[in-house]
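Lab notebook, bench 4. Still working through the backlog of constructs that have no structural model yet. Next entry is a single chain of 311 residues. Request: give me the structure tokens for it.
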Amino acid sequence: MIPFYHALALALASSTTDAFVSSPSYAVMGGGCAIPSSSSSSSSSSSSSFRIACRRPPPPTPALLFMSTAETSESSASSIARRQSTEGGGGGISDVFPPILDELRDVAMRLHTREQAPREGRAESPVRSTETHVPTHMDYLRFLVDSRAIYVVLEDIVNNNDKLAKFRKTGIERTEELERDIAWMCDKFDLHRPSVGNAGTTYASELRTMVKSDDDIPEFICHYYNYYFAHLAGGRMIGKQMSKLLLDGETLEFYKWREDVNDLKAKVKDQIEEIAKQWTREERDKCVNATADAFKGGGAINGYLYGGSAH
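Model written out:
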């Protein structure tokens, strides 16, 4: 038995400029996972499920559902540079407040447990269950189908609101890539494409009704940021593990980008800071206070990977 989630966390922290952690890295990998020996893995390469057994966690707290904003490895230099870039302009509201991404990170870290974030975590650690869950190809397909539903809604909102025009065609969009992956999974493993499940339907509905006026844009930005960036960093590590354990080394289009990922993240972060520069304290609070709901919405979809979401 190997404490796999520790190895994953170390790999994540060492390989990204933002140590974002989405719930699969903790709830799937952190539930107490056993990596089989080389002999067992070689004999089960055609299995329809992960060659990994995980103890199913109890119903997660919001922080466990979708942890995405733990930028623990971001250098102080980059943080200072971002602060300077947002505080320029001579007398704007941005001179009064820190960068919005710093505020989002702070509240996200407080939603982590001490185990996840020893210095800043405040949430209680759940009691682990010994029940095992072995994810299947269908579990993963459902995760992809529901994930695509959320990306469709996020893109629709951005494309239909001129105040969000800067977030169009950023390079981080995933709808087309996921559509190709879903078709590939169905063909490769002879699966029937499932409809969007309860997790995806619920969160997509919440997002679609979120932006009723410009006053709701700060709340939307929190969801946009958390959802995209969870998959841009922590999600990539999960994709690698799924590729090795479930897809015989195949990398899905979901985890491929046409530009350098760090460049894409930096560009979108700058765009978020730009839109937040003129927000009032009340608007910034509205953005920051949406973090737990963003974790909950995205985490429900991640639940397909560890047995926490019913279809």
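Notes after review: The two ends are 30 Å apart (CA to CA). Residues 69 and 105 are 5 Å apart (CA to CA). Flag for follow-up if needed.
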